[in-house]
Specification:
The protein has a single domain (2-86), classed as Alpha-Beta Plaits (2-Layer Sandwich), CATH 3.30.70.920. Strand 2 (28-33) and strand 3 form a beta hairpin. It contains 3 helices and 4 strands; from the N terminus they run βαββαβα. It has helices spanning 15-23, 49-56, 83-86; strands at 2-10, 28-33, 40-46, 66-74.
Length: 91
């Protein structure tokens, strides 16, 4: 499994719609709105490296409202956690 982190600058007036369209792309597992110089961060998880290009170049970059992207490929994971468990209130 290949994981890529995509930093996205987007039109602020369309941010929610842009994030929702990105989240609907096959291979995008999560989209976060963030503070700082970026507007959105997308997590891409695909089986092969060519899939990153398909998701980013042919998908994310073509979404209306996306101004620019920068993609980082993760090559080693140092920790794994279950988000549902991490945010659980012990129920």
């Amino acid at each position: 499994m290949i994981t890529a982190i995509v930093f996205i600058q987007a039109e602020v007036a369309q941010l929610s719609d842009t994030a929702a369209r990105i989240a609907d792309i096959d291979g995008v597992s999560e989209v976060y709105s963030v503070t700082g110089d970026l507007d959105l961060v997308a997590m891409v998880r695909v089986a092969e490296i060519d899939g990153v290009s398909a998701v980013v170049a042919d998908g994310i970059n073509r979404v209306d409202g996306v101004l620019s992207t920068q993609t980082q490929i993760a090559y080693r994971a140092y920790s794994r956690h279950d988000l549902e468990e991490a945010f659980s209130l012990g129920l």
